[in-house]
Structure formats: structure tokens, C-alpha cells
Amino acid sequence: MFPIKPGQQNFLSGSMGEIRPSHFHGGIDIKTGGVTGWPVYAAADGYVSRYKQSSYGYGNVVYLTHPNGLVTVYAHLERFAEPIAAFMLRKQYENQAFELELKPEKDIFKFKKGDIIGYGGNTGGSGGPHLHFEIRDKDDVQYNVLRFRFPEIVDNIPPTLNTIALKTLSIDGRVNNQFDRFEFTPVKSGTFYTLKDSVFAHGLIGLEMMAFDRLNNAENKNGVQKVDLTVNGKVVYSHYIDAIPHEKSRQVSCHINYEVLKRYGKSFEKCYVDDGNGLPIYAQTYQKGKFFIKPNSKNEVVLTLKDAYQNTTTFRFTIYGRKPVFEGTAKKPKKPQLDYEISENILKVTANDTASQVRNVELYIGRLKYNLLPSYATENGSVHLYDLRGGIPDSITFCGISRKPGIRQIVPSGQELNYTDNNVSVVFQPNSLYDTLYLKTAVDKEFFTVNDMFTPLYGPIKLTLKPQTLPAGDLSKAAVYFAGWGKSRNFEGGKWENGAITTYTKNLGKFRILTDTTAPTVKLLMKNKDVISFRVRDDLSGLASYKLEIDGKFVLLKFEHKKALMWSEKLDKKVPLSGEVVLRVKDNAGNETVYKTKI
């Protein structure tokens, strides 16, 4: 049975298959009217096999295992139903910890279909009151909840196709005579979508799409379950987001165009399967969705989108094959310019020339010099393409201008590799990378750079930073921080040894070493015989631990990080809070605040 207001129409704020920043959304998000406290019902007979209380992730969450082997998950609860709530509280007092996960024996907590298992909330990583509901199997494979066709959810609205992109995937690949990625806006034409303008291409091409699905009477943009791509009537790509192993959910970073998501906040799903993508959602097809456009050909492309209720959207357009040609530049710059970028295995060099005759770019690999011919013209100059698998260039020169790509080493995926220089050391594990990485490192003032944050990691890397000058003061308070956008500083931690600090991270990009000597701040909000509450914040490394004692005895503090709020919960509700209050709060750098008062 449906876990919220069974028998009545319900509305979703999220469905399976949505692209989240670091994972596929693995269930459905059921709206609770913008408030907490709605009863949450057991979907079927079962027993509590696992439940957890936390300020992060799923927050307060219950896992029910059912006789058929399926597991239902109820997350972000405001509170648990009895008797599991009382059992959790006792265990928290025994362990003197708020964050706690329990796995009771099979026969301890049994629930019948329709029993209240908890109450809807906004705990953990939730962005508003709702119930996150999942259905898994015994191997933690997350199923699309809507495959069970709950009558409480109504959907007869087909998906909406927002934007498509065509990307060149080989050195001879071109879209409208250029090696790049181009976005196009589909337009509605009768019962299907199409493009207003003609598209010309050559070589190996990949298609990406940004789409969403809406359900009846709800404005939320949900995920699309099924995507099929045909070229000239042949299926070249197909995916169906209906069952995803929980441990592979992070591979969403390979399913989407990760760089576009990070740069522009747009979730483009690739309609081709990159190397390193191990998700089990794809049909086996030739070239894994990458299709080749021959010169002088006419290629009919059809993209079909379906939601969980089989509402269908169709997009049709034609790609005309055109052999790459070199056309003269329209403008001449006042002085020569040279720039480059790396797209997978291809080095793309852009040279803007003042001369009327197009000149070559020179590549230096060791003592050898190679003349790199122009591949095609741009408005201001020419583009020269080079396959990095032919050798890593030390420098690129053009008209007296020199650029050093700074590629330190080729790092293949699927194997362990250690890299060390004077500033950094990186250990890649076999599961760290999705695909080959052209490793670049640099040090600029206080920043250590390892490639960029637009390249995803699947598993962690071991990162060692070697500062030329050690931080002043107590080294135990200095740690590695990941520098994302703007002035953001995310604590990564680290251990010092022989003048270097080592940590594990799932990020590439800029890192810095910062020293945190400021203890957390504590503000008393309320105190009486029933409850005491605090606002607790830390300005840099973040909270590591906290402990409350009243009259020398442990008192449980619950924590809501989104509000920086801590409040007490008594084990025995009849015993008043009374005596000296001592709250100890420590951050990740070891700075401690001891706050004292009396009740």
C-alpha cells in the first residue's frame, strides 16, 4: 500500500532517475503539504531490519524487510513510531551518541501492512518536508517505485524535451564543420519535436539530451525513465532507469555530461556509453550509442522518451553528412593568439593568425618537433587537432608564442598508479577513475591544483601536499581543504608526516592548507526542566563531536545541521533537568568550546 495518505491522490516532488549532484535519485519523494508529522504507513507486512538516526543523508530512516525479500525504505522521518523510537533512545543513551544505526534481529520489531512506522519529516539532507520512499531487493538494488502502479499517483503527461547537444567523439568528427559540442533547442511540430535548422556532421558523433517529466497537478520536474535513440531506423542506444544497484548510484557522474553540470548547472544525459560506465541500465548496442556520419549521407535521427507510465515524447531530425573542409578566416586579429584545451584524448589548439597564409602549429615532444596542420578554420583563425595517445607534447608554439600543456603523466583507469613531484603526490586506486586521465599538477600561491573539478572521480584518491613553508603554529590544526566555487572551503582533513599532509578525497581541482584555531560558538536558546537547546556553529573545519552533561550525567542532544540546532531529549520524561549544565563541542581541528550554565 502507498505509505502516505493511502487511497487518496498523492503528489511527488521527485521520482527515480532524476539527476542529483552525486547520484541517481533512488526512490520517490512524496509531498506532505509543506509540513511535518503526517503518518507514514508500512507498505506491507515486514520487520525492521535496519534503522538510523542522523543529521545527514537520509536523516531518520527505517528499512522494512518483507516476506518476499523486498525492502521498503522510509527516509527523512520526523520521528519513529513506537516501540522502535524508545529502543533507539535507550541505545543512544547506552552509546552516548545521537548518530546511531541499529540492525535489530528479525523478530524484534514486526509491522503489519498499514501500521504507522513513523511520521513525515525534514531530517538529514532533505530540502523540505516530504517522505523519501524506496523499494529495494535483498542485494540493495533500488527499483523504480512507480513500476508498482500505485493508484495514488496519476500521470498522463508526456516528458518534455528541453535541449539536445551533439558532440564530436573522434578526431575527424565535426558538427557544422567544427570539432566541439553544440546545443540545439527542439521545437514542437505537430505530435513530435524537431529542429528548425539543418545540421551537418562528419565522423563519430554522440547525442546528449536534457529532459524532464511532470506528473498531473504538480509543477516539479521529475526524471525520465526510458530513452531510445535510432539512426536510420537502427537502435544505436537505449537506457531504462528502472533498477539501479545502490553502490553504483554514484556513477551518475559518468552517465551525464559532468563538466556541463558543474559549469552551468544543466543536467545533460549522454545517449552514448562512455568507457568506465558500469551502470546496468543500458541495452547492448553497436558502438554504445556513438554513431558515424559518412560524407554525402542523409541520416534520420529519432529520440524517444518515456516516463514510468509509458507517456511518450518523440524527437525527429536529420543530420546531413558533409566532409570537413577548410574555409578561409573571416577576420584577422591585430596580433597572433594561441590557446588550447583537452577534450578526452584530443588536444584542440586554436591559433589566431595575422598572416594571410595559414601557418602550422608546432608541437615539441622531447627533442622532436612536429608540424601540426590546421584541421579547419574559425572566424579569426584556425583549429589544429592532435591525438594525445601519439605522445604528450612538452610545448606548443605558434608565431613566437609558446604554451606548455603541463601534462605530467597519462593515468589509465582500472589500475593503481602513484605519481609524485616536488609539490604533490597522488595515488590512484583501480576504481578512482572512469576513463584515462591526463594528469596535470600545479602550485600557485596557497593553492595546489590537481587537474580540475570538472572531471569526476568514482572512487577516492590518496593526496599528499608538500608545502614549501609549513603552516605556523600547531600543525594538528592545519588540514587540507577543497576549494570549489568562489570562496568555498570544504574540509578534507589530513595527517602530517615529514613536512607533508596526506588525505583521501573524491575531488579533483584546487586544494589548500588552512589552519583552524577558532573554537565553535555556542548560544543558549532555551532551558527549563524539560528541555535545553543551543545554536552551535563552526567557522571552518566543522563540528566533530559534542556531549552534554547535566548534574554530571549524560543527556542526549539531537542535532539538525541545517539549522545549527541542538536540543535535549530525556531518557526518563518524568525526571526534570536540574543541576550544572556542561556542553563540550569540538571541531575537526580539535578546538573545543566548553559551555556552562545551570538549570
TrEMBL record:
Record InterPro entries: Cell_wall_metabolism_enzyme, Dup_hybrid_motif, M23ase_b-sheet_dom
Gene3D superfamilies, per database record: Glucose Permease (Domain IIA)
Cross-referenced SUPFAM superfamilies: Duplicated hybrid motif
Pfam families: Peptidase_M23 (PF01551)
Domain M23ase beta-sheet core: 24-80
Protein name: M23 family metallopeptidase
